[in-house]
Amino acid sequence: MSRKVCITAVDGHTGFAIAELILQHKEFSRKVDSVAGLAINPKSEHAQELKSLGAIIVQHKPGRVRDMSITLEEMGCDTICLVPPAHHDKFDICVELVEAAKRAAIPNVLLISSAGCDYADTTKQPRLREFIDLESLVLQSKGDASTPTGGSPCVIRAGFYAENLLLYAPQVKEEGVLPLPIGENHKFALVALGDVAQVAAHVLTGKGKHGFDDRHRGQMMVVTGPMLCAGNEPATAASKALGADMKFENISQAEAKRVLKAQSESDRSELQYLLDYYSLVREGKTNYIATTAFHDVTGKHPTEPDDFFRMYEDEVRPRKRAKQNHK
Which of 30, 74, 120, 317 is placed for a possible disulfide with 129 were both Cys, Cβ 3.0 to 4.6 Å? Predict the structure, then answer.
């Protein structure tokens, strides 16, 4: 059974990570005939790197469902991974992609959604709540036998990426401070992007008589990290991993907004998503761990916070070590 995979938003971090994993690891690459990537910016560094690894890069021009469905048909893919792009029209673009995949009769559809969207409030966390509507669009076809995409949808609700903490690298390096607007007590389970990519790669390359592997088909998979952390705990994990002194500082939502704007090149809607998630943490709605799906799909243990910070040691190690501060 052939498997031709299309991954959207490969010019972004999530789409790139999933595509790269499938292309570079035989565990996955031997199960697919081809990997195509949709990129709003096909000349981006991520898109060009995937092209060098053998991916087919196609420019994604949002605007018309009909044009998008024709593009997908011409690509000849039988499996699509819908990754919401870092774009201010993210929701509309995703709705267009879901409808285009339906028209192009793509049987296997995986949506990368967000953990916590089911707890989000439309007025307080609108960017987070949008994912509920996207999930509904993907999953509603499950009950329609006449729809080509009805047989094999899957949703991965990814937890808050630990990589988002790297946006605060300047403060961490210069001051040994991790500033987050999450309050003092409530917790969240940071997940490594690579762990989400692992689950997605298994789903996209898994095969069963109806498309995706029957263990994955129709599943709502929530994937968080393995450890609940209040603000001081990621700082403690980083200190332990890096052998440096790092402190957590609880800041206001307004201050977080200023910091993120000053230090990040991310689209404004992506920054709002981060602020929405921090708001959810402050409300105590992220005090849970969801690792069962990761264990069941990959057979492995998700990345611990200590190990995550070791992976990004060069980016977050404070310039002054604790022992130097006491000279």
Answer: 120
